[in-house]
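1st attempt posting a full record on here, be nice pls
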Amino acid sequence: MDYLAWAEWYDIFYSAADPGDVEFYHGLCRASGGPVLEIGVGTGRIALPLARDGMEIVGIDLNEPMLKVAERKALDVAPLSGSLKLIRADMRKFDLKRQFPVVIIPARTLLLATTEEDQIYTLCCAASHLEPDGTLAFNLFYPDPEMLADDPDEEFLLEVVEKAGGGRYVLTAKNRFDTTNQLNHGVQIAEELDASGKVLRREELEVVVRYLYPDQVVSLCERTGLEVIGLWGDFEGAEVTEESDEIVVIAQHAGNQSQRAHPIL
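the predicted structure (as tokens):
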């Protein structure tokens, strides 16, 4: 992945997105009282409003340019009523030597671990940082059959985002699914247009993810000592079906065990 390019375009891609995920994670975090660990904090889209409102947030991300954007955004809203600590770390192998009542992995970040082993280690790290009665929440996209049959050469529209002062961003994407290995070699395309419609620049952002089905999510959680207590098809608690866009997962330690999680490979 081109981390520098992603850091520049990330907030634009999310600027017109449905805020349902933000509301879900904010509600969960505020109900806990914090502190909160966010795995894949990115540019602080979810973490910064919580820190601004008085919560203690620790965010990890491997993408250093993203963290620099988050740091800059934090300065723009300083002083924070709470705190935001940003740490560069690999979600598959980190140890902060503390536990949290809530651990979140938003924005389908778990899927950036592109092997089953790496997904297990990511969930293991999340579980090991979770308090005995704590809650882990994350979301993934639902790999419905129609999506998996996407033409790899066909661009489809994601969003059109209006620019302040005129012009717009046109955001499109292409998917190339490898159904044998459950991988998507995707490309997200951003075009910046001026007020007359002339293309000022175009960026193609590659991303590879390993998608999961609901039963696989439950199995991976069980293998890392977690019990799924909620499995939804959206952020409002709908049933998971082939029509769902999301798989939203809420998990706790199995039997609320306090021991450190170890992967079962």
